[in-house]
Each structure stands twice: as structure tokens, then as C-alpha cells.
Amino acid sequence: MRFSFGVILAVALSGLSFAQPTLTPAQRQLNIYSFELVWKTVHDKHWDPKFNGIDWQAVHDELRPKVEKAASTDEARDVMSDMLGRLKQTHFGIVPGEAYKELDQKDDDGKSSPSEGDPGIDVRLVDGHTLVTFVTPDSPAEVKGVKPGWEILSIEGKELAPGMAKVHAALGSVLMAELIETRSVVERMRGPIDKTVEVEFLDGKDRKVKLKLGRTGPRGTETIVGSLPPLYFWMDAHKVQSDIGYVHFNVFFEPDAVAGSVQKLMSECRDCKGFVIDLRGNPGGLGAMAMGLAGWFTSQNGLRLGTMNMRSMTIKFVVFPRPEPFRGPLAILVDGCSASTSEIFAGGMQDLKLGRVFGTHTAGAALPSLFTKLPNGDGFQYAVANYISEGGKPLEGVGVTPDQEVKLTRHQLLEGQDPVLDAAVSWIHGQ
Question: Over the stretch 17-69, which tens digit does the pLDDT of each residue have?
């Protein structure tokens, strides 16, 4: 999801450094303004008024002289990163403007252009290789013969491997590495609909193939949420076998559409052996939707997926039970690009023993956070809440560990197989 990529990117790339010349008085003042904005934002909006036991005013008074003396923006950035590091919490960080521009190609106002599109390819990082995992039907990529399992080698003549290696080195062991790296590749293929993008692939026979791919509008229907740029929602609800229901949607938006599709499938699936909720690639959205979705699988009152604490309120993710829920086994599919509300749902259902989770470890990016541009041009990410699962575990920086880990392989993708879904179906039949 395009708007969230920069939000997720901020903390993970906060360690990157770019050499800069000596500051002018004006640049020095912009760094001071940035420092003050960062400090005040945390002071006013952090969910814990005691700042995790830190004397926030004392931190300001200690570090303000250092940012005033900083000889470069890099040094000023280090001071601000030090300040945020005192909180010892994720989703707080400074990202250099240069790094953000490199990986997140946007208009100057930070929003996607309505005339932009993509060739209809989704990807995942598998053992260091960027593999095509899905090709949108009738998309420019499908028309040119692109298949799942093909590896992307370069985009517009720029090889992916060196750039991904640099990003991976900067991220280290950050859980959300797969999400960040994957979205960066997808973003590089986006652009004006009236122009093509050249992509070099390694096809199913290990031959290098260069294709000029057209672009089309995003998959799904446009939806507007608050002041965010236009988002696109799609949903797939059907039976993967005659006795197993399957629901897959790309973001937790359009609650009426999700509820309607699930209800319709439930009515057709009264005698089904099991149900699958596929959250792979779903970066989250409206948290409240997790409560409604969970209710289709229990009639018990008083259950919660977890608790979110904010400065002014505490939100309990109470499950809304259905009088006639689906009582068969539920499989939940996740991967490294499942984040936020997807993690809340998967982790909560896992804690409540209402579902079994299949796939790979999730992104560990559960906190609601905002991203703003600082006066000196850097980006600043800050969380506005804290979330603890019903099992007492934080999801942020930890993520959801599947009950059954299942990884993709290039061979399986080329053969048209979905090993994660296959494992879930096999488990359901075993019940």
C-alpha cells in the first residue's frame, strides 16, 4: 500500500548516513527547528505521559546544545536519533530525506499521482531473490507472458541485487525488512500510465528476458479514507475446494464489502470442513475491522484480540461474536508483508486458539504511527499508541510466529503451486 511505505521505512533506515558540507547559518537553524519539533511532538502525543520513565524535559535540555553545535545535518540527525533512542521504543526515528527519496518515489507532495499505474506484478524476496508471486489477470505483465516464479534482475537498467544488498545491510535484522524491500521494488515499477517500464527477468528456463511493460491503473476499486491519497481495495472470496471457504483481501478497508463477502461465503459454506483467511501482503488498515472479522468464528462473549493504549484512551479489541459462527477449523495465512491490523487479527486469533497460522513471520509493525517532514528535509516517524496482544505479548518488533512455517520456493511458484495454502488445506482435512 503506497501511502504506508514511507511510514514503515522511517525507523528501519534511520541509521543511514550521507556526507554533507559545512552548514550555513540557515541550515543550522533548520536543524534546531527540527529538533524542537521532534521533542514537542513526542511531548504532546506520546501515549505514555511519563515517557517510559524518562525525564523528557531533561533530555531536551541535555541535547539542545549538541544540536546547536552540530557541524552537519548528519550530526544533528544523530542527536535527534539519540533523543528518540532514549524512549527505547520502536516506530520512533529519523530518516534522511535522501534515503526516503531513493526508495519511495512520490510526487513532491508525498502523494501518488492519479495518472500512475503499474504493470500488474507483485513480488516477494525469497532467499535474497526478487520473485514474481502474482500477475494480475489481463495486466500488461500477463499480456507479455510474465509468470509467477520469474526473478526480477533489473528495472530501467538498474540491477536490483546491489541496491537490495545496501538496504538489507542498513536494515540488519529488522523484522520488517521483507516488507520494506518488497515495496521498494514494486514502487520502482510504478509510473505514468502513458509510459512503459523496462524490466529484466530470469524466466522459468533461466533465460534473461528484457521486456518493456505498459502500466495500468491499480487493481481494485478506488476508496478515500480521510486525507490519505486514493487507495485501491480488492477482495477475493470463493471456495478453494468444494468444502473449504477462502477469503483474501489486500487492505483492511471497506468494512461493508468485507462483511458482505464473508457473510455470502458463510451462507454457501455451512457444511464446509474449514475456512481460510489469507492475509499475505496485507499491510493493515482499520483496526476495528479485525474485531468484526474475528466474530465470524466464535459465539463466545468477552473475548479480546488485545489492547491498544493511547494518551487519551484505551481501546480494547473486543471480538463481536456471531450467533451462528463458522465452527470448523480456521487457517490464517501470513508472510513478511503482513503488518498492523493483519498482525492484530492473526496474533489475537492465535492467542485465543481460534485459528492456526501458516506461512512466514510477520513484519512486526503493529503500532499506528504517523510520518511528517521536518524543516531540514528529513522525515520523522512517531507512534501514537502501544499494542499488547491478549496473550500479553507486544507485536511491535516481535510480529506473529506461524504455528506452521511454510516458505515459498522459486520451483513451486514456477509450477503454479501455493505451498502455504496447500499446507493449510491439508491441515483442515486432517481435522
Answer: 444 567 899 999 999 999 999 999 999 999 999 998 999 999 999 999 999 99
CATH class of 116-213: mainly beta
Look up residue 204 and give its amino acid.
Answer: G
- Residue indicated by cell numbers 461474536: 321
pTM for the whole structure: 0.83
Residue 201: all three cell numbers together = 527477468
Q: How far apart are CA 141 and CA 396, in angstroms?
A: 35
Domain regions of the chain by residue span: 17-95, 116-213, 234-367+384-416
- Distance CA(372)–CA(202), nearest Å, equals 39
Positive or negative, the Cα torsion across 314, 315, 318, 320? positive
- Fold observed for domain 17-95: Transcription Regulator spoIIAA (3.30.750)
Superfamily of domain 234-367+384-416: 2-enoyl-CoA Hydratase; Chain A, domain 1 (3.90.226.10)
Longest pairwise C-alpha distance within the chain: 73
Q: Please report the beta strands in 303-405, taking only residues with DSSP state E, as ranges in sequence order.
A: 304-309, 314-318, 330-334, 356-359, 369-373, 379-383, 386-389, 404-405
Residue pair 299/267 in contact by the 8 Å Cβ criterion: no
Per the rule left: phi > 0, alpha: psi between -120 and 50, beta: everything else, 148 is beta
For 229-253, the pLDDT digits (tens) are 678 899 999 999 999 999 999 999 9
Decide: residue 36, CB within 10 A, 0-12 exposed, 13-18 middle, 19+ buried.
middle
What is the pairing mode between strands 191-192 and 116-117?
antiparallel
For 49, 296, 404, 417, 429, the CA distances from 426, given in Å and listed in that order, are 49, 22, 12, 14, 5
150 within 8 A of 202, measured Cβ to Cβ: yes
